[in-house]
Specification:
Chain lengths: 112, 112
């Protein structure tokens, strides 16, 4: 029940296209859902996060869509650029004093 | 950019050596974490600390040990390195009451 399942494992998108990465969780007590971006040779960095009181959050070209009833959330990257090529991790946690439960990661490649 | 530092960035050592991976943060965060990650793959939590003199083992069993004598410092030690310890080690920190974790650049360890 603590798992966060992420898909796909890898994704290739043409420049200008929409990249979509999905995550599913079981624990209904989770109340914080971030996405992290990791470039090769770097540590992950927070990209965008959402709490379950809203269904969507947008920051620039990045949008999180959240479906509480389905226990799923997804990252949409609009107008994908080669610079977006990275590994993306979803995560979830319950409250601010609990661990982040991480998805397995998605390697995204944007083809020019 | 987050102020969290890891040294060394790269380390190649022989089997049986004792090593210490250093992690320091200047943000005054109470919570610190060590993750093990094969490049671009899943993050595995191996140790965490919620404050000085507090350390806990994470989800992934590890032969390493940690200490937290000062808030800003969270070193990880391997008493006797083995080839199976070859991996990337990421240190992270977060503030009390907040979920966002800030990551260091990682240490890439190779044990021959």
């Amino acid at each position: 029940q603590q798992q966060v399942k992420q898909s796909p494992q890898s994704l290739i998108v043409q420049k200008g296209g929409i990249s979509i990465i999905n995550c599913a969780y079981e624990n209904t007590a989770f109340d914080y859902f971030p996405w992290y971006q990791q470039f090769p040779g770097k540590g992950p960095a927070l990209l965008i996060a959402i709490r379950p009181d809203v269904s969507e959050k947008k920051e620039g070209r990045f949008t999180i869509s959240f479906n509480k009833s389905a226990k799923q959330f997804s990252l949409h990257i609009m107008d994908s650029q080669p610079g977006d090529s990275a590994t993306y991790f979803c995560a979830a946690s319950r409250g601010s004093n609990y661990q982040l439960i991480w998805g397995a990661g998605t390697k995204l490649i944007i083809k020019p | 950019e987050a102020d969290i530092y890891q040294t060394p960035r790269y380390l190649v050592i022989g089997t049986g050596k004792k090593i210490t991976l250093e992690c320091s943060q200047t943000m005054g965060h109470d919570k610190m974490y060590w993750y093990q990650q094969d490049p671009g793959m899943e993050l595995h939590l191996i140790h965490y600390s919620y404050g000085v003199n507090s350390t806990e083992k994470g989800d992934l069993s590890s032969e390493s040990t940690v200490s937290r004598i000062r808030t800003e410092h969270f070193p990880l030690t391997l008493e006797s390195a083995r080839p199976s310890h070859t991996s990337q080690y990421l240190c992270a920190s977060s503030a009390n009451g907040y979920n966002e974790q800030f990551f260091g650049p990682g240490t890439r360890l190779t044990v021959l």
